[in-house]
């Protein structure tokens, strides 16, 4: 091993050893990833209100792959398109998600204890775009996938989404339907809902003009509210 590389390695180990002073094992701290309890043969460590866990605990809990690089004392964690590279004793992580790449600061460096590589739990989880919450009463850390935001509907796909939801509710059969949508606002239970007025007709493969009118509906932009319009009563009834 070249002398310079060896000296660098020793310097990192000394830095990590100094940083580790004052750490306390927390056998009673529990870690949950997406609602599942994660077991570890080594307890989490707490230092200056930060929780550190063995890298394999958080990686396997997140469904990530871990690779160790003994030659330069680094570890790489990969999940989907995101890759994080950590060097022992370094307060920066190499980050890449397929869109951007480069060093990013983390609130504490990784270190080695009892032949385990420990990493800062919150910092790494958030780099993987996870929510991290601490329950002091239960002494538990909860790491959860961020909910995928519901895409807003447009006038072009509102009809298809409406038909899909009506089929889920078994309101419609598997016949073909034709939808005409336009922007619309409706007052429902004291609040204004913004979305689309959709007219549905059962498709007639022989003559478009003979398509049978099924009804008029409203679907909001989030696709979370579907109302059917009653022509006689001039009112809306919620069906989804």
What is the CATH-assigned architecture of the largest domain? 2-Layer Sandwich
Spell out the CATH superfamily of the largest domain.
Answer: Copper amine oxidase-like, N-terminal domain
Distance between the termini: 68 Å
Low-confidence stretches: 3-21
CATH topology of the largest domain: Copper Amine Oxidase, Chain A, domain 1
Q: SS-based structural class? A: alpha+beta
Mean pLDDT level: 81
What is the level 1 CATH name of the largest domain? Alpha Beta
**Number of domains as seen in the coordinates:** 2
Envelope shape: elongated
Helix content: 10-25%
Q: How many helices?
A: 4
How many β-strand runs? 19
Describe the structure.
There is one protein chain. This protein is α+β, with helices and mostly antiparallel strands and 240 residues long. The protein folds into two domains: 116 residues, Copper Amine Oxidase, Chain A, domain 1, CATH 3.30.457; 84 residues. Helices cover 18% and strands 44% of the residues. The strands form four sheets. Strands 1-4-5-12-11 form a five-stranded antiparallel β-sheet. The radius of gyration is 28 Å and the shape is elongated. The N terminus is likely disordered.
